[in-house]
Design goal:
The structure is a single chain. A hairpin with a 4-residue loop joins strand 1 and strand 2. The protein has 15 helices and eleven strands. The longest helix is centred in the last third of the chain and has 24 residues. The chain is globular and about 75 Å long. With 374 residues, the chain is an alpha/beta fold. The strands form three sheets. Strands 7-6-5-8-9-11-10 form a seven-stranded mixed beta sheet, sandwiched between helices. A two-stranded antiparallel sheet has the order 1-2. The protein has a two-stranded antiparallel sheet with strand order 3-4.
Length: 374
């Protein structure tokens, strides 16, 4: 068993995790020293002292001391900012624009109803299940704007600076965070969600996470089909997924193999298509005038530019393609993948749309898959 420092950390209720020194049971930070072995740190005297031996090795110079930025200097820098500069520093506007557009599209598509004038005890108000929730800020905006009473945050990773704390401050709101991979999630096994209408949302569900989410939500509906047919009700009212990272998609997870197969696309070709999709986001999307959907792709002309007949092979064609041509091809491949998803949802009785919800200048991953039961 690897030795660890024997210094007890009361706040963490454990021993220090650092390795001990060769001649001590403590690490360098906690090894006891007499006062004469320590001298004040020349960089910041208010901080812990450092050993004299280390000082001789580092050879601090006056220049190094002058260049050091103290906490007071940093604080003064913040206070000297104008209000617009300060707001721009911690506030990433592009994320808020995307979140607002997602919610606006949900409302326009009649999946969500604005909470203004609604009875706060309305039992028909759906819960919210956010897949790939991350820190949960999309759900926080939804809860603020639509008076949601119950939210479920699905995320396999652990995050700091989550929105959970502010969400828990809402007395009428119940929040549950489920730390689990979407692939392993069975919504029917979540007891607190049984029999409750809900809306499924996801902002930038990377690659196969979109397919796994669709299967997770609509498999729940299929399993309850016999029960729900008599009443005509569905627990899932609708969904909204901002698709992204198509280059990560996998054949084994893709939701509509039947559709791409009908286009003559086999497994190996599907993986080639996913590779092309990264080109759609590699282009310069800094201008709102840039729109790959308005551009055309002529592979024959690309071949002629290489030298009349295509003798150099595919690699040479790829290397000679212009940036806009690569972007157009990548975008078309993304559309094939997303159209398969849309058709799969339609086959399950939902009204579905695929919309561009923000300009490419805000995010090149700017398409939203939205659906609802009619």
């Amino acid at each position: 068993m690897e030795k660890r420092c024997k210094f007890w950390l009361p706040k963490k209720n454990r021993f220090c995790a650092n390795l001990p020194l060769n001649d001590s049971i403590f690490c360098g930070n906690h090894n006891p020293r007499s006062d004469n072995q320590w001298i004040p740190c020349p960089i910041d005297p208010s901080q812990a002292s450092m050993p004299e031996k280390k000082m001789k090795v580092n050879k601090w110079t006056p220049t190094q001391v002058e260049d050091n930025v103290t906490s007071e200097m940093k604080r003064n820098t913040v206070y000297s900012l104008t209000v617009p500069e300060f707001l721009k520093l911690p506030f990433q506007e592009k994320h808020v624009v995307q979140q607002a557009s997602i919610l606006g599209n949900l409302e326009e598509f009649r999946v969500l109803k604005n909470s203004v004038g609604m009875d706060q005890d309305d039992e028909e108000r759906p819960a919210v299940v956010e897949f790939g929730a991350g820190r949960g800020y999309l759900t926080q905006m939804l809860a603020d704007c639509y008076g949601t009473k119950r939210v479920f945050l699905i995320e396999r990773k652990s995050y700091k600076l989550k929105a959970d704390r502010s969400l828990r401050q809402k007395e009428s709101l119940t929040i549950e965070r489920l730390r689990i991979d979407i692939e392993d999630l069975n919504l029917n096994a979540v007891e607190s969600l049984r029999g409750i209408p809900y809306v499924a949302i996801g902002k930038h569900l990377c690659g196969p996470a979109t397919d796994l989410t669709l299967r997770c939500c609509l498999a729940r509906e299929v399993s309850q089909e016999n029960v729900e047919q008599s009443s005509g009700k569905h627990h899932m009212r609708g969904l909204s997924i901002a698709t992204c990272c198509h280059h990560l998609c996998q054949w084994k997870h893709y939701i509509n193999k039947k559709y791409v197969s009908s286009l003559g696309i086999a497994k190996e070709e599907f993986h080639a298509i996913t590779w092309f999709t990264s080109w759609a986001v590699d282009a310069d999307h800094g201008s709102d005038d840039f729109d790959v959907t308005e551009s055309k792709l002529n592979l024959e002309s690309i071949g002629k530019e290489v030298g009349g007949e295509v003798t150099g092979g595919v690699e040479e064609i790829v290397r000679n393609m212009k940036a806009v041509e690569r972007a157009v091809l990548g975008f078309k491949c993304k559309q094939i993948i997303d159209m398969g998803r849309l058709m799969w949802i339609k086959e399950r009785g939902l009204e579905t749309e695929f919309v561009k919800y923000v300009p490419a200048a805000i995010s090149p991953e700017n398409h939203l898959l939205i659906a609802r039961f009619t």
